[in-house]
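Exercise: predict the structure of this protein bound to calcium ion.
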Amino acid sequence: MEGQSGEQFTGTPEYVAFYRPGQFRKGWGFPLVEAVAGGVLLGRVYDNPGGTDLVVAEVGQVQLQSLMLVVILRGFEQVNVYSRGGQDIARLYDSPGDDQFTGSPGWSRLRGPGYTYQVIGFRQVEAYGTGGGRDTAVLQGAPGVADRLRAWDFALRQWSDVLGYVIELREFERVDAYASDSGDVAEIEAGVDWLFTHGWN
Ligand SMILES: [Ca+2]
Ligand SMILES: [Ca+2]
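Solution:
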C-alpha cells in the first residue's frame, strides 16, 4: 500500500485499513502487510491480544511481529502501536540525531528528527540511544505503586513487579527519572553521572 499526505493506515491481526479523504479501503487475512507512507502520515498498529508480539521501531520503519501476522510501516511520520494483552515487547531505536524518549508504565514515546513513535500498553519497553547525537529521556513512575529503579554503566531499568511492567534504557546521554511516591526505591551504581533522580529514595 502506498500513501500520500493526510492519509492513515491501521493494521491489526483481524484487518488492515487505509484511509484518505474520499477513499477507504479495507482488507482481511493478509499474513504480511507492508505499508509505505508517501507524506505526512499516521499509522496505527494493533497487536494480537492473546499472543506475544514484538515491535521493533527504527528510523523510517516500524515492524510488528505477531503470531500470524507481520506488519511493516515505512516512512510514517507518526506511528502508534497498541498492545492489548500478552507479554509484548517494544524495542525502540534512536536516530543519528538528537532524540527524546518519554517513558511511563503503559505509555512510552521516542521522537526525533521527522518521526514520533508511541507504544501503548506494552509490558516491556526497551529504548536505545545508540545511534549517535545527544539523546535524552524522561521517566515517570506509576502513582500508588512502589516502582523500582536500577542504573549501572549506561543502562537503566525501571519496573514494578506489581504492575508487571519494565522499561529499559541503553546509552542515553541524560535521563531524568521522577518518582511518583515516597515508596519508590532507586539503586544507582557509583559513577553513573547521566542519571538525575527526582524524589526517589
Ligand atoms: Ca499481544
Ligand atoms: Ca540519537
